[in-house]
Amino acid sequence: MKIDLLSTGSFVGGQPHGQFDWLRANQPVAWHEEPGGRGFWAVTRHADVWAVDRDFQTYSSEPSVMIADPPAGESAVGANKMMLMMDPPAHTQFRRLVRSEFTDPAARLRAEHIHALAKRIVDAVIARGECDFVSEVAGEMPSFVIAELMGLPLDDGRELYKLTEILHSAPEALPPGASQAAMARMFEYASGVIAEKRARPDDHLASRLLACEVEGRRLTDMEFVMFFILLVDAGGDTTRNMLAGGLLALMENPDQLAWLMVDLDARLPSAREELLRWTSPVICFRRSATRDAELGGQAIKAGDKVVMYFGAANRDPAVFDRPDVLDLSRAENPHIAFGTGPHSCLGQHIARIEIDAMLREVLTRMTAFELAGPVQWLPSNFISGPQTMPLRFRAS
Ligand code: HEM
C-alpha cells in the first residue's frame, strides 16, 4: 500500500481511509518521510491517539501543532503565543480566561439565537432551489457565530472565515504569497479590533479578553491577536466542513436520512455524533516528544514529531463496531473528533448547537437533495471537507 499522508491529493475525496486502515492494522505507529523536514510518526489507533493527546508531558504542543515547523524565528513572536501551541501550566492560564464563555450552559444560552441565525441562512436560499451548500449555507453559520461572540459585524465574520480557509489550504494549492497575505490581513483586522474595543468596550468576548489579566497583567497586543486568530480559525471551517460533509454523507446513505427523519428531534443527538465521527473535520494535530518513549511498540526519541490522525482513530474497529458503516443510531460512540486531553475542543458545546440548528433547519425545510455539479474538497492535509458543493433541492 502506498502511504502518503502529506500530499493533498490523498485528501481530495475525503480522508484516505484505505491508507488509514492499512496503517492501523499493520503499522499503527508508522514512520512517515517528510520532504524538507525531519519526518514524523503517524499514529492511527484510537488508543494511541488518545494516549498522546492526553500525555502533554511526553508529547508537547510546542513549538507547533502543524506537521511543518514554523519558519525560523517565527515561533518566538507569533505561533508560540497561541494557546493551542502551549503546554500546561501556561496553556491552562490562557484557557481559563475564556473557558466560562464556552461551557455547556453558556453555549445553551446562545441556542435560541443560533436557531434564529440558522433560519435566516436557509431563508436566503430556500426560494432558489439551488445553492453552493458550503459557502451559502454551512459556512455562514460559524462565521456569524464567531462574529457575534466577539462582538463584530456579521459581514466581517464572512471575511474572516474566507481568510481562515486560505490559511488551512496547502500553500502549493494557492497563488504565491496568498497565505502570507491572508495572515497579514488577519493581523491587521485583529489590531483594528483592539483599537475599536479599547475605545468603545462592550460585553462581548473581544472586549473581555482585552480587560482580563494573566499573572497580574493585561494581555499584550500580540497575545490578544493570537487568541483572536485562534478563536476565528478554530471554529470556522471545522464546523462548516462537518455540516457539508455531514449532508453529503446523508445524501449518500438515504436509508440513514430516512431513519433520521422519522423522529428528527429524538434522533438528532446520536446522528450528530455519528456525523462528527464520520467526517472528523480536523485530520491531524502534531505533538513533539519531550523525552524518549514507547508508543504502539515503536521507540520514540526525544524531539520526534508524533502526528495524531483523528479520522483514523474514529474508524478503529477495536473501538467502533462496523466502523465503515454510517450508523446514525450508534449508541456507543466515543469518537474523538473534538480531540481529548487539555486541548480538547473549547468550542465543542457551541459547535454541537450550531450543527443541530443547521441540520434541523436544512432537513425540515429542504428536501430532494441532489448534487448540481462535482463536489470539490479543500486541498489540505490538515482540515477535511468539501470546499464547494453545488446543491439542488426542493422546498418542503
Ligand atoms: C465540528 C466543529 C469542530 C471540530 C471538529 C473541532 C475540532 C477541534 C480539535 C480536534 C481540537 C484540538 C483538540 C486536541 O488537540 O485534543 C480543537 C481545539 C479547539 N477548538 Fe475546535 N472544533 C470545532 C469547532 C469549534 C468551534 C465552533 C470553536 C469556537 C467557537 C472551536 C474552538 C477551538 C479552540 C479555541 C481550540 C483550542 C483549544 C486549546 O488549545 O485548548 N472549535 N477543536
Q: What is the structure about, briefly put?
A:
The chain is an alpha+beta fold and 396 residues long. It has helices spanning 17-26, 46-54, 74-77, 90-99, 104-109, 111-126, 133-138, 140-150, 154-168, 178-199, 205-211, 221-235, 237-252, 254-262, 264-279, 310-313, 348-365, and strands spanning 29-32, 40-43, 59-60, 130-132, 213-214, 217-218, 284-289, 293-295, 298-300, 305-309, 366-371, 376-377, 386-388, 390-395.
Secondary structure layout:
Blueprint: H1 17-26, E1 29-32, E2 40-43, H2 46-54, E3 59-60, H3 74-77, H4 90-99, H5 104-109, H6 111-126, E4 130-132, H7 133-138, H8 140-150, H9 154-168, H10 178-199, H11 205-211, E5 213-214, E6 217-218, H12 221-235, H13 237-252, H14 254-262, H15 264-279, E7 284-289, E8 293-295, E9 298-300, E10 305-309, H16 310-313, H17 348-365, E11 366-371, E12 376-377, E13 386-388, E14 390-395
Parallel strand pairs: 2-10
Antiparallel strand pairs: 1-2, 3-7, 4-14, 5-6, 7-10, 8-9, 11-14, 12-13
Helix pairs in contact: 6-8, 6-17, 8-9, 9-10, 10-12, 13-15, 13-17, 15-17
